[in-house]
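#lab-general

N.A. 3:47 PM
ok so I finally got the sequence cleaned up, no stray characters, all 150 residues accounted for. can someone with queue access submit it? mine expired

B.Y. 3:52 PM
send it over

N.A. 3:53 PM
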Amino acid sequence: MSKHKNPKNKFQRMRCPYCGSPVVLRSADGIYRENSQGAMLYVCSRYPECDAYVKVHPGTNIPMGSLANHELRTLRRTAHYYFDQLYKTGRMTRQESYRWLADKICVPLKDAHIGHLGEYYCKLVIQDSRRLLQPHNARPRHGPGERRVS
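B.Y. 4:20 PM
back already:
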């Protein structure tokens, strides 16, 4: 018997983190309003009672993150929006923003993906991204206790 496991089996054995039910790979039809791209999802077998799912990378069976319910998917979208603004506004380069994210969530750079974040880290990324995006002119021009020279 081979010591190497078939990577497909790993995804076939997934369980829903919310209810413990098996997870199935299926079309996003009926879940997404519009699925002209033919997206596939891993979905809790109790859907729609348990609405946990995650999209897979196109043409593969590899999930883009971890299963998430409606609340966590909403938090991830919001976190991604503010995170993306860090490089879209020029505050950081894209590479710098992913290094910042990796440091923020304490993972190697290759594992810095919002699709894997839970509620706590999503809220932290939203809060800290928003703080970094505040206009620089909102900060005092001199440090506390320093006097302005006229």
